[in-house]
Design a protein that fits this description.
about 40% helix, alpha/beta, 6-stranded mixed β-sheet, 2 domains, Dihydrodipicolinate Reductase, domain 2, Rossmann fold, 13 helices, single chain, globular
């Protein structure tokens, strides 16, 4: 049995999803010969550290009962640098201004000899090349499947299943909130504000939905795709971004009369990065409904490969994080 020790930095919805998923997959992991042992967990109020392995059920229960996992006050950076472990999982909130605290966590982890798995888009959208070089310089894995499209395995598909192919272009629907709003506006002829309110009530949109409806979240994901797959060295500021706030029911109805729908489409083609509403034929692979995400990848050998699935949710995101953890556990 291979024991892999992990620090989990961030214990909100995604962090708790990771813990719950690992608990539910204990038997599966044992059959794989892998024992995942969480030795440090942090949230905004404190931390829990146990080098023998934290009781995840108790940690989740304490978080729900008290609002924090904390049993001590070690900081995230102290845990990353001083507690022995192999993998640092960062699921802290996205910050597109300076990438913190995730950026500092990741660079510190690489400096301390820890592999990194993350769902945090901010650091990758701002300093992808620096992070990638830090991992390579230290001979460490840097895995970030969960940063784009939740459970949809875009990077695993391109870098592993399609290894040997040259990717010439990618387009997709990468924000489930926008897709839900546009779907509801199309199907029910709802005005934008009513569809947004419904999305917020259902938990698909934040109280402040600017990142989603302004196209910012989708642009961050597109930058990560461009840097990982095309090696462009792009940042969020290199994306031409238009959100969905000005789309009217009349525009959607006109599109429908022409056998099309309007979708917020992300495109990375010929070095150009663009996020904008676009007419899509109703039978096109990008014409997915609800909160689904989709990526359509054009390659030289395999042709066009299109994958779709749940692009948000704590368990869906945890699915990608667990996949990355298992990959590292098998290869270290």
């Amino acid at each position: 049995m291979k024991t892999v020790r992990i620090s989990l930095i961030g214990f909100g919805a995604v962090g708790q999803g990771v813990a719950s998923t690992v608990l539910s997959k204990r038997d599966f992991l044992k059959k794989q010969g892998i024992d995942l042992r969480f030795v440090g967990i942090t949230d905004s109020k404190g931390s829990e550290v146990d080098e023998n392995g934290i009781d995840l059920e108790a940690a989740i229960s304490r978080k729900k009962d008290t609002g924090s996992v904390a049993t001590g006050d070690m900081t995230a950076l102290e845990i990353i640098r001083n507690v022995k472990h192999e993998i640092m999982v960062d699921v802290t909130p996205t910050n597109i201004d300076d990438g913190e605290p995730g950026l500092g966590n990741m660079l510190s982890a690489f400096g301390a000899g820890r592999h990194v798995v993350t769902s945090n888009k901010g650091p990758l959208a701002l300093r992808f090349s620096e992070l990638n070089e830090a991992a390579e310089d230290n001979g460490l894995f840097f895995r970030y499947e969960a940063t784009v499209a939740g459970a949809v395995p875009i990077f695993n598909l391109v870098h592993e299943a399609l290894a040997g192919n040259t990717v010439t272009g990618i387009e997709g629907i990468l924000n489930g909130t926008c897709n839900y709003i546009l779907t509801r506006m199309t199907e029910e002829r709802m005005p934008y504000k009513l569809a947004l309110k419904e999305a917020q009530e259902l938990g698909f949109a934040e109280t402040d939905p600017t990142y989603d409806v302004g196209g910012i979240d989708a642009a961050l994901k597109l930058v990560i795709i461009a840097n990982s797959i095309f090696g462009t060295g792009a940042t969020y500021h290199d994306v031409d971004v238009t959100g969905i706030t000005k789309i009217t029911p009349e525009a959607l109805e006109l599109a429908s009369n022409n056998n099309s729908v309007i979708k917020l489409v992300c495109e990375a083609v010929n070095g150009t990065l663009k996020v904008a509403p676009r007419l899509v034929p109703k039978r096109h692979p990008l014409a997915v409904g609800g909160t689904l995400n989709v990526a359509s990848i054009q390659t030289d050998l395999a042709g066009r490969i299109t994958i779709s699935g749940k692009g948000a949710g704590s368990i869906e995101t945890a699915s990608s994080i667990l996949s990355d953890i298992i990959y590292i556990a098998r290869h270290v």
